[in-house]
Amino acid sequence: MLTSVDIQVQNIKCGVCIATIEKNIGSMPGVQHVSVHQSTGMVTITGMGLQTGLIEKKLIQLGYPPALKNSFLKRIKTSIQCAFQS
Questions:
Q1: Which residues of the chain have pLDDT under 50?
Q2: Sequence-ordered list of residues with C-beta below 8 angstroms from that of 10, at least 6 positions apart, any chain
Q3: What does DSSP say about strands 31-37 and 42-48: parallel, antiparallel, or unpaired?
């Protein structure tokens, strides 16, 4: 069955970054299509039998680690903590 996985990653800065991700992730077993959105850092992978852990590991090796989940909320929490500690 064809499935799709979305992974938000860091460090996508240009077309070469996009091409690197598309080429390397696209050659992994089961991957049929890779789409990278530069401004959001979202990588969408479509295929059969996708192994998200292996894909994330490959992205890290390429220099595009997955973004921390809820990083926006963590920044707000940290900002609030800093304001009250002053």
A1: 78-79, 86
A2: 41, 64, 65, 66, 67
A3: antiparallel
